[in-house]
TrEMBL record:
Top-rank taxon: Bacteria
Lineage of origin: Bacteria, Pseudomonadati, Myxococcota, Myxococcia, Myxococcales
Gene Ontology molecular functions: methyltransferase activity
CDD domains hit by this protein: AdoMet_MTases
Domain Methyltransferase type: 40-134
Keyword field contains Methyltransferase: yes
GO biological process: methylation
Protein name, as recorded: Class I SAM-dependent methyltransferase
Keyword line: Methyltransferase, Transferase
Keyword Iron-sulfur among record annotations: no
Length: 259
């Protein structure tokens, strides 16, 4: 599957729910996030974590390999009145100075990287005692839910990887393999947390959110995306007519310290 999120950057920016305020509040409570930190957000996408860090007083550098995604991220940051330095670069080879940052974050993107190389690069960027935070915000698919119906339709159009694929949270939104990734790069004091949230979506917003999925708008031909969207709209109207839809999500984060 060839994935290019730049093809769906508009839907991504408008409809993909970012990390909730409660995620950043948890980082503040645990002493990981505070004003004045120099932070790097790798795989920033449309900048959801980068903006959260900037709102909490960090000096933020945000990186992504996709120029269209960075363009969307810059626009959203400007709308929010936030100053963030955006650069086009991969997480594995950022080109940034060594031991220059107190915090490195990776949200909703770790599975797209060469994870071993990305972990070593994060360790290079951080000062001793600096933190790496890897986080994911996954929808959940209870039996009979609109999410389950949507996933079934996605599978029909673009069969996905097997359940054992390490890029996904095994259907429960947790990522134990990340512990091995960061430990192999020398990180210590590994900690994790998880909590659930419910995100409301109108039918239109849910369709936009799904068009921004890696296996839909980011990989299918435009004509197939249009057919998919038409079929999803019909499923929503027939089986899940209520609005807004209540979509359960699980936040999972791993926090690691550079010695």
């Amino acid at each position: 599957m060839q994935v290019d999120f730049g093809r769906t950057s508009s839907d991504y920016a408008k409809h993909r729910a970012g990390f909730p305020d409660s995620f950043f509040s948890r980082l503040v409570r645990d002493g990981i996030l505070r004003p004045g930190l120099r932070a790097v957000d790798v795989g920033t996408g449309t900048g959801t974590i980068a903006r959260g860090l900037a709102r909490h007083g960090c000096t933020v550098t945000a990186l992504d390999v996709s120029a269209p995604m960075l363009e969307s991220a810059r626009g959203l940051a400007t709308e929010a009145g936030l100053r963030i330095d955006f650069y086009q670069a991969p997480a594995e080879r950022t080109g940034l100075p060594s031991e220059a940052y107190e915090l490195v974050t990776a949200g909703q993107c770790w599975h797209w990287f060469d994870r071993r190389s990305a972990a070593h690069e994060a360790a290079r960027l951080l000062v001793p005692g600096g933190r790496l935070v890897i986080a994911h915000n996954d929808w959940l698919a209870p039996e009979g839910s609109v999410v389950e119906a949507t996933e079934t339709l996605i599978d029909a159009f673009n069969p996905g990887p097997p359940p054992t694929y390490l890029g996904y949270g095994q259907g429960v939104g947790v990522y134990p393999q990340w512990f091995r990734d960061v430990a192999g790069a020398g990180f210590i004091h590994l900690e994790s947390f998880t909590f659930d949230v419910t995100v409301p979506y109108t039918h239109e917003a849910w369709r936009g959110r799904i068009r921004a999925n890696a296996r839909v708008g980011a990989s299918l031909p435009a004509a197939a995306v249009e057919r998919f969207d038409t079929q999803l709209a019909a499923i929503l109207a027939e089986r899940f007519p209520q609005e807004p839809l209540s979509i359960p999500h699980r936040i999972f984060a791993l926090v690691a310290t550079r010695p």
